[in-house]
TrEMBL record:
GO annotation (BP), single: translation
Biased composition (Basic residues): 167-181
GO molecular function, one term: structural constituent of ribosome
A Pfam family: Ribosomal_L4
Region (Disordered): 152-199
The name this protein goes by in its record: Large ribosomal subunit protein uL4m
Biased composition (Polar residues): 152-162
Record-linked InterPro entries: Ribosomal_uL4 (IPR002136), Ribosomal_uL4-like (IPR013005)
One CC-aspect GO term: ribosome
Amino acid sequence: MAVSISRRLLRSFYGPLYAFGRCDSPTITFRSFRPYYDFCGHLHGDNIFSPGSFGLFKGGSSVPANRWLSTSILTPESGEGAFPSHLLSLKPLAMAERSIGLYQDLVIPVTNFHNEDKGFMVLAGDVFDVPVRKDIVHRVVRWQLAKRQQGTHSTKTISEVSGTGRKPWRQKGTGRARHGTLRGPQFRGGATMHGPKPRSHAIKLNKKVRRLGLKIALTARAAEGKLLVFDDLEVPTHKTKNLVNYFKQMENTKKLLLVDGCPIGEKLKLATQNLHYVNVLPSIGLNVYSILLHDTLVMSRDAVNKIVERMHTPINR
């Protein structure tokens, strides 16, 4: 009976190793344990749970014997020294991707141009964590591009073209086609028929859809890790090289958009005016199209607060 119970315990705890071989196989050993055939030799007696076997003994501690069943995280700084440090990866562990669109508040670190730690900031979930909808973004971008068209194109009709109103030749007898004026569209320098006239290209789009488009654009940048929050956008000098050095430190960044809550400082404006890949906007001018044009978005604390306040303001109907 003792033997059968012991084998059941072995199968439950050490099933793969137990099924690997029998007692006559002396090649299987355990770390800091007796050889496998030596352990199997105890099955005939009552000392199956003796302290010299596996540590699963009565009244004793099973931690030393079962230590090989546990797992531990090794780092190059760990003091165990048994694992070669050059085989350990210095990269951080991959974390599970966060679900987007759950309206959860986000905690993001705050820094500045000198990469100093300025604490953390909570981003409102109803602004920076909304469901991403490409159709809404498309509608907002189309509305923006249509509204910004000047619409000053103009052509001249037959009454606006300069020229005489005299009939070029008589109606019959010349063998030529009959014409009543030389200002017609078929003549060089004549009028343009059905040509463009000054008009507005703007299309109608509800305010709630425009507001939702901006939230989606901010959510996309935050989900990509391309949204940075600075304590402020103050620069020590107006020299362009300072911003160039900071831009070179950023990874996978081709165009940078700086958004400040207050009016843009003169030093920052002078430092960025010669960089075609760095643009500056006040928070009141932040829009979907500008966010999509730049792959990295940097906002100050004041800008974030003003954007959230703007998104929470009731829509006047």
